[in-house]
Design the sequence.
């Protein structure tokens, strides 16, 4: 049974498995592209190393402590492959159901001293939406990513990073013109920026 990719990194405590049969609006990976992405991911010892050094995407600094990285399905497969390589798991290309989704990771660095509960209220409840013209694009998938050492501790300065993963069903045509990226934090404050995502869904 095919499954949609489930990214596993050392610092992940939660992941999603969402079966999908409907074709999304973005380009779908070919079998050859899937194999190439898997091969690329095996060049890295961990998924985190691939994300930091190998991932090809669009990086946007939204605020002094919040940034967003957008990437396509090919990079998502490679990220999963790096995680499998790290855990000595075999990632079979036939088990991958590419989605054509646009992927986005929001990374928030704590700028003050927070207890985990306070951080939960402000950061973990953040949301990411895109606007194209008058249309608001909501995510079709969302995952909260937490470092293992962050639970029940007081986290000071920028030593704590919370990552939120989102997925969007958009077409290349939706992204021809610049879009507005909006992060809404747990207190309801909006942080936005106009960005160019043209071509981000294209697979090399």
Sequence:
């Amino acid at each position: 049974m095919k499954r949609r990719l489930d990214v596993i990194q050392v610092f992940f405590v939660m992941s999603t498995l969402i079966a999908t049969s409907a074709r999304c609006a973005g380009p779908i990976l070919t079998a050859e592209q899937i194999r190439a992405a898997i091969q690329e991911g095996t060049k890295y010892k961990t998924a985190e190393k691939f994300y930091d050094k190998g991932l090809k995407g669009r990086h946007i600094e939204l605020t002094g402590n919040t940034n967003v990285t957008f990437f396509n399905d090919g990079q998502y497969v490679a990220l999963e492959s790096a995680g499998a390589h790290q855990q000595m798991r075999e990632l079979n290309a036939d088990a991958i159901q590419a989605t054509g989704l646009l992927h986005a990771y929001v990374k928030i660095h704590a700028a003050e001293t927070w207890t985990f509960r306070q951080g939960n209220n402000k950061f973990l409840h953040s949301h990411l939406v895109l606007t194209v013209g008058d249309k608001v694009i909501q995510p079709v998938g969302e995952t909260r990513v937490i470092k293992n050492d962050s639970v029940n501790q007081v986290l000071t300065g920028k030593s704590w990073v919370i990552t939120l993963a989102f997925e969007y069903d958009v077409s290349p045509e939706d992204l021809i013109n610049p879009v507005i990226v909006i992060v809404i934090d747990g207190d309801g404050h909006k942080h936005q920026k106009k960005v160019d995502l043209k071509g981000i869904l294209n697979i090399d």
Notes: The mean pLDDT is 80. Helices lie at 31-41, 47-54, 73-86, 116-124.
